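User:
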Amino acid sequence: MTTVPVATAAFDSRCSPSVASHLASTHRASQLITVESSTYASTYATVSAWSRVGPCWTRVLGPWTGRIGSNGFSNHKVEGDDMTPTGAYGIGPVMYGTAANPGVHYRYVRLVCGDWWDETPSSPQYNTFQRVPCGEAPPFAGDSEPLWEEGNAYPSFAFIEYNTSPVVPGAGSAIFLHATLGYATEGCVSLPLAELDDVLRWLKPEADPLIVMGPASEIEHF
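Assistant: Predicted structure:
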């Protein structure tokens, strides 16, 4: 399991101090989402979206209150621990949802019966979207998600590219940026739907966006 490779970047004194400006590095990104909690154990986080303007990061959306895993953040996530992984990750190349495309710049898949996320560590397709014939049991067992049945959480969502390069069995799966249900998540990051869709519409694949997640004491090191 790896985070996005990055190169060290020092804080530029011309920029206003912010969580974004103090990150260790942001690779090639010109769009950034920060998810910052007060402590590792907190289930609440401040979510902001930032655009790079010259050497500086400018907040364009937020700050908003989001929810993370019911057991907070983890530097060593494992499947089923209800924790959100810390680190810096890309946004997957496809966005999904049970509702119509809200106007995203990414390829959008509207979920239908038979659309699953494989969350079985022993499966060869672990931590990937899978489509099986409607009504048939998927070949992967365990607690995999029938995505089309989660309309309240998944009217639209983005996949956070955690545990993808390489995929490590049991290190955690299905880490999404999705709509809040009003309580902590099983490891995802959630926002109220209107705010979520603002973020999803703003994101552009050509901007190499990153989402950086962690507690205030550590987030600038990821």
